[in-house]
């Protein structure tokens, strides 16, 4: 089975002064501004790294939720953020890291079992597999 999801981007003009936007097929993003200024100068809008961070946080959290349920856990709350690092790489840039930070509340789980399940979810969520970069996970459990 293959699932295909689509996104699109448009640049009006070229370079730093361009007006650009990004959209998703679902409409969750529709003509959302992005470009040099939103990526490097904190102008309002989005940027590819922010979108990757949101995708990674949501993918990992979903994978962990299903993995915990598969191990028999019934109640919990998972809250994840991801910080994607963009670093100078020669003449260009490269994503060098995605740092996941998780706050987890899971009834009845011990630390060792949670660590095993969380590390597996980190390694096996589709976005983790897509990213060719260092992926870290820090978490607090039941605090």
From TrEMBL:
Pfam family, one: OsmC
Xref: InterPro entries: KH_dom-like_a/b, OsmC/Ohr_fam, OsmC/Ohrsf, OsmC_Ohr_Peroxiredoxin, Peroxiredoxin_OsmC
Domain of life where this protein originates: Bacteria
Protein name in UniProt: OsmC family protein
């Amino acid at each position: 089975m293959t699932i295909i999801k689509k996104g699109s981007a448009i640049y009006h003009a070229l370079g730093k002064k361009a007006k650009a936007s990004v959209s998703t097929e679902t409409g969750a993003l529709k003509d959302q501004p992005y470009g040099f200024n939103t990526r490097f100068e904190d102008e309002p809008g989005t940027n590819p790294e922010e979108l990757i961070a949101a995708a990674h946080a949501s993918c990992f959290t979903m994978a962990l939720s299903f993995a915990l349920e598969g191990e028999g856990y019934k109640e919990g709350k998972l809250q994840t953020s991801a910080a994607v690092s963009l670093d100078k790489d020669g003449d260009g840039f490269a994503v060098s890291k995605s740092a996941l930070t998780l706050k987890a509340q899971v009834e009845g789980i011990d630390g060792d079992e949670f660590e095993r399940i969380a590390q597996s979810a980190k390694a096996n969520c589709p976005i983790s597999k897509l990213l060719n970069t260092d992926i870290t996970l820090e978490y607090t459990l039941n605090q």
